[in-house]
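Reading group handout, session on sequence-to-structure problems. Before we discuss, look at one worked example. The prompt was deliberately terse, the way you'd type it at a terminal:

> structure N-acetyl-gamma-glutamyl-phosphate reductase

The input record follows.
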Amino acid sequence: MTTKVFIDGEAGTTGLQIRDRLIRRDDITLVQIDPDLRKDAEARKAAFAEADVAILCLPDAAAKEAVELSKDLDVRIIDASTAHRVNPDWAYGLPELSAAQEAQIKSARYVANCGCYATGAIVLLAPLVRAGLIPADAAISVNAISGYTGGGKGLIAEYESGEAPDAFLYATGMAHKHLPEMMKFAGLTAKPIFVPSVGNFAQGMAVSIPLHLSQLPGDLTMAQVHAALAEAYAGAAHVKVADLADQDSRIDPTALNGTNDLMVHVRGDAEDGRIVLVAVLDNLGKGASGAAVQNLDLMIDA
Ligand SMILES: NC(=O)C1=CN([C@@H]2O[C@H](COP(=O)(O)OP(=O)(O)OC[C@H]3O[C@@H](n4cnc5c(N)ncnc54)[C@H](OP(=O)(O)O)[C@@H]3O)[C@@H](O)[C@H]2O)C=CC1
Ligand SMILES: CC(=O)N[C@@H](CCC(=O)OP(=O)(O)O)C(=O)O
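And the output record:
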């Protein structure tokens, strides 16, 4: 028997990539609706009724509406939007957080896929906060660069028409939508500074967190930070920690494009303790569509 999956928002950036990942699988049957009816509530409700799992690749408001439409049906939901990520009734879709998190995803009716930048920041911070190496109230800064597909159809159109600048920083008002999930799942009590940016490349991202080890408790060393991260992700299929000996000064945000992997780098000056943690991932891979498929596989035990 195959698992029936409905991708609501299949024509969008995230939806298309999920479709590409599922279409050739013989354990999955895609439930499809007439593209002209993609915003028709009745047609979508019929698709929810037919599906075992629905993956929502929609703006937040439409994702909330989809949950309402399907609430009395048996369908399980993975939501790629920001709408439900800090909702306690939803499992946060980052199985690498802990064995308990993975178990929660496996049995959940509702799974919220993580934000792309949040995935990078949480993977870097959560094990260090949990181990007490970074205090929950530490003043943390997160910087990031993303390819323009991270902004969906709207930003893609700006770049493809040549209107957008080669690069820009944004969210300088300190209110980016990924901050609540970053805090909740990294275990931070103080709001970080988060300054993302976009460059003139389609896909890929690097999320970086600079640290002055001298401002953290204890006599923490760069090697200890690396060891804590390497231990946390030792068994993870999709999160790797680069060797500490790799201290190349450049990091390419597109290095993992086309994969569902995330690479953690710990770089800096081990002598004076000014270091930077960097997560490289494909915003459409581990940052969105690949993560949705990883969660789907956990839910259906594939
Ligand atoms: N792009 C990325 O890197 C990431 C995106 N996400 C999230 O995934 C979700 C989708 O993003 P993305 O794929 O980039 O967005 P897009 O703008 O590329 O696609 C959204 C799709 O949803 C459709 N849609 C809009 N409103 C409705 C509605 N009421 N009913 C049914 N369909 C509707 C759109 O239709 P139409 O074809 O008419 O425009 C479009 O096809 C968002 O919540 C986003 O935040 C999450 C992680 C990363
Ligand atoms: C480049 C760009 O605009 N990125 C988007 C985040 C990517 C995304 O879609 O975020 P979710 O994972 O929360 O859906 C932004 O900053 O709003």
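Points for discussion. First: The chain has a mean pLDDT of 97. Second: The radius of gyration is 19 Å.
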